[in-house]
Amino acid sequence: GDSVTQMEGPVTLSEEAFLTINCTYTATGYPSLFWYVQYPGEGLQLLLKATKADDKGSNKGFEATYRKETTSFHLEKGSVQVSDSAVYFCALSLNTGNQFYFGTGTSLTVIP
Amino acid sequence: GAGVSQSPRYKVAKRGQDVALRCDPISGHVSLFWYQQALGQGPEFLTYFQNEAQLDKSGLPSDRFFAERPEGSVSTLKIQRTQQEDSAVYLCASSLVNPSGGAYEQYFGPGTRLTVT
Fold first, then answer.
1. Max Cα distance, chain B (Å)
2. Cβ–Cβ contacts within 10 Å for residue B90, how many?
3. Total Cβ atoms within 10 A of residue A97
4. How far apart are CA B83 and CA B78, in angstroms?
5. What are phi and psi for residue A83, nearest 5 degrees?
6. CA A98 from centre of chain
7. DSSP states of chain B
8. A100 touches chain B (CB under 8 A)
9. Helix boundaries (H) for chain A
């Protein structure tokens, strides 16, 4: 079935370090891929998305590229800040009106 | 503009009680989803509405769970005879419908944290 496998956390980084959070997927069709972020005490917010192979989603310095050949959508940021501390969820959806399949989430803590 | 709102934000129920959780989606969003998020896990799908029609309820864990959206806007998730394993955060999300079929992003509410004692 359709699923997302996400890098286990927690991840602790120093400010200005490089971040990678791995995400791979299994899908029966051609999904759209998403990264959501959940800041402490808040709801899930869309961070970025990509709807077809080789698309790159980007927002707030974060990037992820839809790689069909490796079925991956890894999240990267060149220089993390303390304010990036949150839980990050990778997700896929096949079509409009279809459920999202989420990974288990990766907790990131950035220390000054 | 206003986002997705949910109420109550926190609910404590004694085992065996019935609970009702409310979701107000973003105005104009045709699609509405309910998810259950256990501690330390990602959200898991429960059910989906397009307008007032419940098109998918395959994720509802038992017949104690029931959802409705009678006028195609506000939705209520009802859990009857709550059990301890129902303790979780219940998330509501809404989205537009993409006429060309591709998935649109879902906008999530803050969730209702249900604790069954």
1. 46
2. 24
3. 20
4. 13
5. -70, -10
6. 19
7. ----EEE-SEEEE-TT--EEEEEEPPTT--EEEEEEE-TTS--EEEEEEETTEEEE-TT--STTEEEE-TTSS-EEEEESS--GGG-EEEEEEEE---TT-PPPPPEE---EEEEE-
8. yes
9. none
* pLDDT, tens digit (0-9, with 9 covering 90-100), for B24-81: 999 999 999 999 999 989 999 999 999 999 999 999 999 999 999 999 999 999 999 9
pLDDT at A97: 66
Could you tell me how many residues make up chain B? 117
Q: Which of A95, A101, A105 sits opposite B102 (nearest CB)?
A: A95
Residue in the structure block whose two tokens are 């990678």:
A20
Residue type, A110: V
CB-facing half-sphere around the CA of A79: CA atoms within 13 A: 1
Q: Any chain A CB within 8 A of the CB of B7?
A: no
Question: Cα separation of B60 and B81, whole Å?
Answer: 15
Among the partner-chain residues A31, A94, A100, the one whose CB lies closest to the CB of B106 is A100
